[in-house]
């Protein structure tokens, strides 16, 4: 009679089932199982960062010991691993601006805080940045602001950089504003800014121009004191 | 806003320095924060267990009790800590919420207790973290179901009808709850008996009886004794028709009743008979008629009115409809697949019974359900291989939805058991609560007897009064004030029931209009069943109302009449001296159970009625049929 078509099929099915049973018992291991075991080792060790000692930080910043303790407690509570990555930072910052989209500005802020550009903010970066913002001199604050605007950190603020910053700030406003934010509003604002800041009309703002102009502007000078007693 | 983010607010404000050079307008002044910003440790004492936490931690959630200034109400100056008289175990979870930002639900705690704690501390239950939310929701739903059952049990249909019910309502109640009256019970058993008779007759009439004289073939009993069976059938159908018409008449909503499952079953059960009567003795039609007689077997479903287990089963099947549907669907798929495969596997063999795919369906079903009749058997090797795979998979496919159905059935069954148990226990609970209530009320009446209302300086009353707590004193004073306000007095139910009788005799002049409809009801049923001997009668020149729980069950519980002294008006006055000194061996529990409103009494100034009435009273037996009428007439 020979093996007919259906019988062939039947024998094929039987062989497949047999192999499945063997695999279940672990006798027959396919090759792919080797690669999986190596990945699991990496996940076991979680990255954890310890900050420098309290005294060192006290020396580096202008906060008192108690303030540092309080700051660290809050920080550690939010980020037990001791590091803030960009996504977490964005989500935290976005929660303060529910109406608009704060992610772009948060990105710029993150870069401003993350001095060594390693993609995460440690407590030292956090507290040093805060120290400048809250307890620093006017010049230091202006320096920090310049650093924020200068996206590629080359020492010059170009119009494109400023436009990006401005757009991100207007994004935080969201859609429902009065009066409505027109599409040209950011570029108009940038133009005004450059008109004021760019002394030599070379299309970029240097740090000296920036500081000089700001020091001459009374509004800016007065408002610099506003945020001193945040903590 | 997630409150855990509150710790980042200072940072966000600081980062606002970046906007300053760009600002077109001047910045607003920052809010002045007068409170000391330095963090301090707070002490929170919860029922003796001391917790300590940073002030900042609690400030994270400013709309809760601990995060707002509301906690200052609980600040204890002497110990410089916040004292809460609450459960310390629960507080642990609450405090952890502040610390970690996630609220967890402790599984071993009662859901309601947890809810109450959350409500006290001003925390919304929605904040419960995802890890515990499901458990919390399930428990809460379970709890609500249970409470709903309680209220349903409270409003159960075995509470007595108000007597103003029409005969139609009474009839409906009798049908729904046979134990309410003896007639209903009799009817219930009679119908049950006739259902059984009808079903047995249907079965027996197909059994072969001994053949008639002269013939050889066995005859089914139905044809041998056709007249007898016909008479029995007629009798049963008459009873069923009568019952159905009665139910239809009594139903509060006839359309809904006509559409309900039970009524459809009733109709289907009796229809074949009438159709048979109407139909002519035609040859072809009678064939269809014979088929119609099959529907007589539906009478067996009428038993579901008599059996709760059947109802539960039906309800379970209904609620597991989706699982059953899935089972059916997967079985159908498997049947089609395997039938096809078997057909093609067996196609070559001569004389194979697998003549077509639909013919193979039968084999597949029999194999998958592991019946294995053996009328169709594969012959080829391939056929046998696939046949064995088919039977193995059949077992699996059928085994999958069964646990779901079983668990559903078990849940419903237990729910039912619980409902019944609850109803039974409810009566005992209500009785106990009523006893305690009486204790309180009697405490007050005893207090009055002891002359507590009288001169507080007299020596004899001082002895008794000393035994009472300050709480009781104040409570009694309050009740006394109420009496004075309404110019009515509290009394007990026995005295009240006498008054009730006098009203029915004719002394009643009701002042409260709202009670007029219920007075009639009171009069009808309020006569106590047990005879009570009374020395004096009360006059009912004013309205009388009594508040008690639904009390039909009171009859079944022996009221301890021994601990109630004769508290009639005259006896109060006459025996004041004797009763006072007995106060030591009375110990009424001053359990304060929320009494809806206290019962009221006739005013003092009503003159006692003629002594002829007591004679009537002594011989009457009446039920203490009191109900929830709760009104006190104004002065």
Task: Note down, in words, how this protein is organized.
The complex is a heterodimer of chains A (231) and B (635). Chain A has 231 residues and is mainly alpha-helical. Helix content of chain A is 62%, strand content 5%. Chain A has helices at residues 5-25, 33-44, 54-60, 65-78, 86-94, 103-113, 123-135, 138-149, 159-173, 185-197, 207-216, 218-223; strands at 83-85, 120-122, 156-158, 204-206. In chain A, the strands form two sheets. In chain A, strands 1-2 form a two-stranded antiparallel sheet. In chain A, helix 6 crosses helix 8, helix 8 (138-149) crosses helix 11 (207-216) and helix 9 packs across helix 10 (185-197). Chain A is elongated, with a radius of gyration of 29 Å. Chain A starts with a helix and ends in an 8-residue tail after the last helix. Helices cover 54% and strands 3% of the residues of chain B. Chain B contains 24 helices and six strands. Chain B has helices at residues 9-15, 55-59, 88-100, 111-121, 130-154, 167-176, 182-204, 221-224, 226-250, 254-259, 261-278, 283-292, 308-319, 321-345, 357-368, 381-399, 402-449, 459-466, 470-486, 493-507, 516-525, 569-574, 576-580, 612-619; strands at 41-46, 49-54, 75-76, 81-84, 208-209, 219-220. The longest helix of chain B has 48 residues, at 402-449. The chains are: A mainly alpha (231), B mainly alpha (635). The interface between A and B is large, with 51 and 45 residues.
């Amino acid at each position: 009679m020979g093996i007919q078509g259906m019988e062939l099929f039947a024998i094929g099915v039987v062989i497949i089932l047999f192999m499945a049973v063997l695999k279940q018992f672990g006798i027959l291991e396919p090759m792919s199982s080797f690669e999986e075991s190596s990945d699991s080792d990496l996940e076991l060790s979680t990255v954890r960062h310890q900050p420098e000692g309290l005294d060192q930080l006290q020396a580096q910043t202008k906060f008192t010991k108690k303030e540092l303790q309080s700051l660290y407690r809050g920080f550690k509570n939010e980020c037990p691993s001791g590091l803030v990555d960009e996504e977490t930072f964005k989500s935290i910052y976005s929660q303060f601006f529910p109406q608009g989209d704060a992610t772009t500005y948060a990105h710029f802020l993150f870069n401003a805080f993350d001095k060594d550009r390693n993609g995460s903010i440690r407590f030292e970066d956090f507290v040093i940045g805060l120290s400048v913002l809250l307890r620093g001199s006017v010049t230091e604050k202006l320096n920090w602001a310049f650093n924020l605007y200068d996206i590629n950190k080359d020492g010059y603020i170009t119009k494109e950089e400023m436009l990006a910053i401005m757009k991100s700030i207007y994004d935080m406003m969201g859609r429902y504003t009065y009066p409505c934010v027109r599409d040209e509003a950011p570029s108009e604002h940038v133009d005004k800014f450059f008109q004021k800041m760019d002394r030599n009309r070379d299309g970029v703002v240097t740090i000296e121009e920036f500081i000089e102009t700001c020091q001459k502007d009374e509004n800016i000078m007065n408002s610099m004191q506003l945020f001193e007693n945040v903590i | 806003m997630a409150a855990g983010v509150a710790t980042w607010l200072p940072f966000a404000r600081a980062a606002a320095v970046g906007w300053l050079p760009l600002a077109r307008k001047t910045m607003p002044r920052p809010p002045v924060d007068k409170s000391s910003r330095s963090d301090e440790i707070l002490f929170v004492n919860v029922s003796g267990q001391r917790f300590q936490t940073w002030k900042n931690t609690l400030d994270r959630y400013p709309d809760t009790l601990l995060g707002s200034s509301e906690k200052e109400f609980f600040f204890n100056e002497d110990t410089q800590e916040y004292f809460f008289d609450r459960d310390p175990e629960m507080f642990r979870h609450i405090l952890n919420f502040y610390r970690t930002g996630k609220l967890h639900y402790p599984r071993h705690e009662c859901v309601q207790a947890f809810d109450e704690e959350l409500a006290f501390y001003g925390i919304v239950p929605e904040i419960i973290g995802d890890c515990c939310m499901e458990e919390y929701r399930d428990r809460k739903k379970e709890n609500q179901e249970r409470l709903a059952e309680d209220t349903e049990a409270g409003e159960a249909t075995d509470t007595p009808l108000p007597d103003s019910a029409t005969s139609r309502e009474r009839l409906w109640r009798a049908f729904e709850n046979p134990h309410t009256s003896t007639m209903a019970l009799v009817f219930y058993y009679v119908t049950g008996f006739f259902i059984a008779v009808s079903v047995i007759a249907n079965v027996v009439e197909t059994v072969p009886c001994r053949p008639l004289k002269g013939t050889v073939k066995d005859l089914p009993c139905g044809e041998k004794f056709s007249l007898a069976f016909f008479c029995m059938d007629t009798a049963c159908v008459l009873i069923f028709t009568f019952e159905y018409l009665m139910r239809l008449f009594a139903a509060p909503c006839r359309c809904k009743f006509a559409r309900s499952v039970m009524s459809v079953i009733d109709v289907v059960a009796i229809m074949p008979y009438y159709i048979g009567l109407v139909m002519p003795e035609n040859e072809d039609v009678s064939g269809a008629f014979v088929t119609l007689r099959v529907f007589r077997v539906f009478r067996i479903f009428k038993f579901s009115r008599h059996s709760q287990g059947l109802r539960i089963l039906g309800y379970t099947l209904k609620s597991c409809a989706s699982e059953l549907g899935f089972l059916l669907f997967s079985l159908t798929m498997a049947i089609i697949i395997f039938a096809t495969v078997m057909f093609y596997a067996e196609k070559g063999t001569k004389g194979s019974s697998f003549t077509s795919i639909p013919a193979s369906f039968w084999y597949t079903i029999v194999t998958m359900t592991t019946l294995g009749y053996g009328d169709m058997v594969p012959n080829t090797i391939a056929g046998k291989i696939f046949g064995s795979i088919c039977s193995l998979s059949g077992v699996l496919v059928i085994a999958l939805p069964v646990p779901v159905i079983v668990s559903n059935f078990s849940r419903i069954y237990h729910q039912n058991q619980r409902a019944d148990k609850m109803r039974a226990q409810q009566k005992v609970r209500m009785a106990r609560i009523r006893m305690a209530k009486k204790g309180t009320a009697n405490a007050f009446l005893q207090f009055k007897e002891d002359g507590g209302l009288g001169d507080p300086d007299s020596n004899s009353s001082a002895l008794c009064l000393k035994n009472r707590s300050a709480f009781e004193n104040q409570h009694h004073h309050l009740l006394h004030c109420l009496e004075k306000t309404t110019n009515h007095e509290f009394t007990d139910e026995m005295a009240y029931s006498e008054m009730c009788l006098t009203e029915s005799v004719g002394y009643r002049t009701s002042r409260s209009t709202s009670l007029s409809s219920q007075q009639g009801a009171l009069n009808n049923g309020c006569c106590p069943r047990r005879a009570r001997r009374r020395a004096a009668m009360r006059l009912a020149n004013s309205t009388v109302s009594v508040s008690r729980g639904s009390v039909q069950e009171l009859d079944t519980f022996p009221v301890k009449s021994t601990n109630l002294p004769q508290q009639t008006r005259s006896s109060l006055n006459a025996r004041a001296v004797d009763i006072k000194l007995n106060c030591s061996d009375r110990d009424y529990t001053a359990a304060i159970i929320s009494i809806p409103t206290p019962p009221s009494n006739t005013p003092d100034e009503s003159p006692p009625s003629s002594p002829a009435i007591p004679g009537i009273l002594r011989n009457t037996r009446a039920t203490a049929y009191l109900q929830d009428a709760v009104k006190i007439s104004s002065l």
